[in-house]
Structure formats: structure tokens, C-alpha cells
Amino acid sequence: MAKRQPSFACQSCGAVYNRWKGKCEACGGWNTIVEEIGAMSAMAGPVATRPSRAKGRIFALEGLSGETKEAPRMPSGIGELDRVTGGGFVHGSVILIGGDPGIGKSTLLTQASAALANQGHRVAYISGEEAVAQVRLRAERLGLGQSPVELASETNVEDIIATLSQGRPPALAIIDSIQTMWTETVESAPGTVTQVRGSAQALIRFAKTTGTVVILVGHVTKDGQIAGPRVVEHMVDAVVSFEGDGGHHFRIMRAVKNRFGPTDEIGVFEMSDQGLREVTNPSELFLAGRDLATAGTAVFAGMEGTRPVLVEIQALVAPSSLGTPRRAVVGWDQSRLSMVLAVLEAHGGLRLGQHDVYLNVAGGLRISEPAADLAAAAALISSLSGSALPPDTVYFGELGLSGAIRPVAQAPARLKEATKLGFSSAVMPAPRGDKKERLPVGAASMAHITDLVAGIAARRR
Questions:
Q1: 105 a known binding residue?
Q2: CATH value at residue 313
Q3: Coiled coil: which residue ranges (predicted)?
Q4: 391 is in an annotated binding site
């Protein structure tokens, strides 16, 4: 019998070495490499079930066309969750959900499992961190204690698969969490890179062979990345991030990876005493409590996937006594703010070099699209001049380094959402020359940043 060779795996990124090192060359982490005897490579399966390379098993090949016995998707009963997943769960798919501790992952999955179980589907909730009594207490608090969800507190993957294989395969199986699972084919402690990879591989194989939707809950590191090897994110079909801030009562779910749907959709939930409540109109939530007569605030008409979202951008420009003025931003890209400030200095005629600049996206939403440049610039100009912007106006447009305001996609959808919420005018880029669109009443098109500066200065006079 061949002697097993020890290997050394980084517990942060999953890189494997044949000897111990103090620093991981892949991620740069110190003292993260741990010896794992009998560790398997990322492409290896269990030793007892691995086929011989000399003689492989012959399997049948199928064509793209054919009849499916089941519907391609299974609605979860929660509209915002279905929006993020692309219309519901795909049979046999594996979804990895990550989020900070206490953000509401278990609460959301408890509500989703109860909704599916009430529809007549078999649903299993396997917890590796809580006892069955603790899961029942959470379900009773949410008013879901009578839902026919099958519960268990187990961490052995082989036992979980054997139990779920009895009788009718479950439509949904929730594993909370993958870091607590362990498989007998790997000789290492639970939570290590090899155990997480081996456990995930076994659960993915079960999902593909039975058609069960498996949801894996993953812990996150201090920088927001899902703990464990990155290869698990490549193995699963979808990676969903559940975000939120302790200072705000809403949570945002967004897909980082999705093989069966878009990755730019978001789902918005509000945390209440009855669990997570769906927010069908996030714009009203983000604009609640807005001060209409304060300088330095502008309403941005943004897009999150196919959903238009209106959010308030706040700016504060104050004289600085420091040699290097402060530049602080929350909810937006720091480098994007630096670019907008440089354009305002070079082409807008503003002097911001001796001022502290603070920019905040109200409500805790994080914006990533360049269309927010015009709204941020309007808020900065308003704060510097002390002139409040019209409360019934929205702003959107991309700002170029030359000071030109460039058109952005889906302008009609942005304007339609603004009109629905009572906004009567918009400041937006000028339409393209050969594809001019008819602007709605109250929409002012601008081609250069000087037009925006002049318009706000005229209001002050």
C-alpha cells in the first residue's frame, strides 16, 4: 500500500504546497498554511470511488433536445429571492449564500423553506451550528412553526446524504453551514480547506444526481470574502451575497455568480420583528426622511439590473486647515470621487483643493455604475455654493475626463421611475446625435459639466 504523502494547504485561499511555509505565495497570508494528511487535490474524488485510469466507466451521452419531466424552475414563494436567482430555483442547482454574522441568512432561509414546504414540496433544513430546538424557536418567532419542514442537526456529510436519499428526494435542502460539515474521505478537521472542498463536492454530486436544490450557507472573512477555498465558488452554480449594515434596517441580496440568470439584479428586504419583509419599491425606502431644503443633496436615478432605483447622494464640502484635505466616501468608489473632483477643478472652474470633501449614499446602498457621476457632481457643486437643488429633480449621467456628460443606458426606465415617485424634472445627458429620443416634459439635457455649474450658480443668484 502506498504511503500517504502529507500536504500543506492555505486556510485562506486553498493553495496547496508540498512543504510548510510561513507565508502563502498565492494570497500573501502569514501563518495560514496547515498540514493536512491525506488531503486530496481539487479534482480528486473519494479514494474508494475513484475509477482507474487504465479502464474508465462508459456512460451514455445525450443531446441538447429532449423532454424534461419537471418544470425548469421552482418558485421559492419569496419574490425578491426569485428575482436574484433569475425567476426561481433550478432543479439540481447548488447555491452558495454568504453574509456577515447576524445579517439574517438563517432567517431568510427559514422563511424560504417554510414557503416551499407549504406548497407541498419536501424541504430539509440541516443545521450544523444550532440544535433542532433552536431552529424551532426561530421558526415560532417568525410564525412558521406549523410548516412541514424536516429539521436535523448533523455535520457528517455521508449521514446527511444517506438520510436525504430515503424516500422521495427533497425539493430543497439547506446546509447551514458548509464550514461545519465534514466527510469521512478526508483526514482533517472540520472547517479546513480540504474538508470544505470535499464536503461541497459530495453535496454537489448529490444535487446533480437527485435534482434537489442545495443551498450552502458560507461564513465570510473580515474583508467580506466567503471563507474557505475559492474553488468552492467555481464548483457551485450560483454565489449570492447577503449584505446589510447594522445601522440600517434593510438588507440587500445580490448575485455574484449565476449560471442560470443575471448577476446584476438585487433583492431588497426590510428587517422587522416578523423576520425579513420584501421591499417591492426600494426607492421609497431610500428616499424616506429626505431634507428638501438642504444644500449638498441630489437624487440619483440609478439602475440595479432591470430595476430602477432612486437614491439620495449627500455631499459636504467644508474649508480645511490641513495640508492634505480629507476625502471620505461611503457607498461609492473612492477613485470615482477623485476623478469627479479633478474634472470639476479642471473644467468646472471650482477650487476644491483647500476643502474637505465628504460624500455619502443615503440609506447604506452601494452604487457601482458610472451614471452616478452627474448626481455626485451636482451634490458637490450645491454644497460648495450653498445653493439647494430643486427637490423634484433627479440626476444621472456619466462624466468624462474632458468634462463631457456622456449618455447612459436605460434612460426611459429611470425617468419612468422618477415620474412614478412624483419627480417632475430630470437633468440628464444630451441624447446621441443620430438616435435622438424625445425627452419628457421637464427633462433638461446637458452636454458639458460647465452647463451644470452654470445652472446651479444661476439658482443662487
A1: yes
A2: 3.30.230.10
A3: none
A4: no
- The 7-10 sheet, strands edge to edge: 16-17, 7-10, 33-36
Sign of dihedral through CA atoms 64, 65, 71, 72?
A: positive
| Residue 101 marked ligand-binding | yes
Domain that holds residue 399: 285-460
Tell whether 78 is in a known binding site.
no
Q: How far is CA 41 from CA 206, 367, 461, in A?
A: 20, 39, 70
CA distance 103 to 128: 18
Which residues, other chains included, contact 58 with Cβ-Cβ below 8 Å and sequence gap of 6+?
none
Q: Is residue 434 one of the residues assigned to a domain?
A: yes
**Max CA pair span of the chain:** 89
Nearest to 170 by CA among 188, 195, 150, 185: 150
pTM: 0.77
Same domain, 270 and 314: no
Q: Is residue 99 marked as binding?
A: yes
Q: Are residues 293 and 259 part of one domain? A: no
pLDDT in tens, 408-460: 998 989 999 999 888 999 999 987 655 555 556 578 889 999 999 998 887 76
